[in-house]
Specification:
mainly beta; Immunoglobulin-like; 2 domains; 4-stranded mixed beta sheet; about 35% strand; elongated
Length: about 130
């Protein structure tokens, strides 16, 4: 979708054989018109977040699908099920630090790759207690 029906800014479009009478609609040489595709464009932040954090099966999974192109980086404020907020930093494709904010007693298992890690003892993980 992104390579054939998208722009470099990750907005997407739909080819259509009509222009609804709008003279400013972009027209390709083949007579096709480009209509802005909201569902594709709006899903971009969602799939990017899912590449960095998942929490579907009663566990928090850090960096489940980190692309090779994102060798180093960070993200803040991702939401995990159970009311947790997660900030993640990585370098050379490896986790360097994660801050998980929430109620410590409700912390689910944390997984990195195929392995579970002890989030309370792993030096890369910081648990910030949130009181409600």
């Amino acid at each position: 979708m992104l390579s054939e029906q998208g722009f470099e800014n990750l907005l997407t479009f739909q080819h259509a054989g009509y222009d609804w009478g709008k003279e400013d609609m972009y027209q390709e040489p083949e007579g096709l018109h480009l209509h802005f595709q909201l569902d594709g464009s709006a899903s971009t932040p969602g799939f990017m977040a899912e590449m960095l954090l998942q929490s579907h099966l009663g566990e928090i999974i850090l960096l489940p699908a980190l692309p090779d192109e994102w060798e180093s980086g960070s993200v803040t404020g991702l939401k995990a099920r159970g009311g947790f907020t997660v900030d993640i930093r990585w370098r050379k494709g490896e986790l360097t630090n994660a801050v998980i904010t929430g109620i410590k007693e409700h912390l689910p298992p944390v997984r990195l790759g195929e392995s579970y890690i002890d989030a309370l003892k792993d030096s890369r993980i910081e648990i910030k207690e949130e009181y409600r």
